[in-house]
Amino acid sequence: xxxxxxxxxxxxxxxxxxxxxxxxxxxxxxxxxxxxxxxxxxxxxxxxxxxxxxxxxxxxxxxxxxxxxxxxxxxxxxxxxxxxxxxxxxxxxxxxxxxxxxxxxxxxxxxxxxxxxxxxxxxxxxxxxxxxxxxxxxxxxxxxxxxxxxxxxxxxxxxxxxxxxxxxxxxxxxxxxxxxxxxxxxxxxxxxxxxxxxxxxxxxxxxxxxxxxxxxxxxxxxxxxxxxxxxxxxxxxxxxxxxxxxxxxxxxxxxxxxxxxxxxxxxxxxxxxxxxxxxxxxxxxxxxxxxxxxxxxxxxxxxx
Length: 304
Hints:
mainly alpha, single chain, 79% helix
């Protein structure tokens, strides 16, 4: 037995560096080194869970959906890079991604995507029937989103639907029923928000996208990008105000909207020159927007 253990250790010492390097490439493919995308997906889901649970959502449901967010975001990144593997090498921001740089084979990416979707299905099976039915819609949106930038100038809207779909799913997971109008208002707010931050993200790549023929709202809006984003930010604030009134939230929530408005003003300042660094900083700043709204919801239930 001791000799067998020694032989196993010797083999592992040979293969371990290769295994670790491979797993690291898979982690990069799933963007585990850049959690901002998962956080932007997480916040609206948490808004929905706390609203659906009247400030006290089920702990098991929260655990399943938080895990599901990370799994689905990882799966979305993998399939996005697989479909964009012939485009990413020509974009400054994406040329070093594992698939674009040739460090991961396309077949590996597909296998990883299949594994992640299987895990997501397993998580959905832990939930009620309504959540499971809605999960198929979410899987379809996540898998087809990367194709939109080839056929429409509105892939950011489709991304908002894919990210926002966590809202009705979370509501159904908490209540076991079809989501009410308030849930769909939160969903639409998440869609508008995604158009805001993903347009800022697309502004980073606008020159490269124009050169290779990839479409985006940043290209569609052109020189009107900042005024249109300001209008969308105002629309989101109005929607958040309506959510608070319909949910009967207490005053701390409405105070948090002042913070959201201040963050939007700061984002407008960041993108004023439309340079890559400023636009990317504005995109990342949206993590604070989601967090401030969630803290407002938490505080509203605490005081009431």
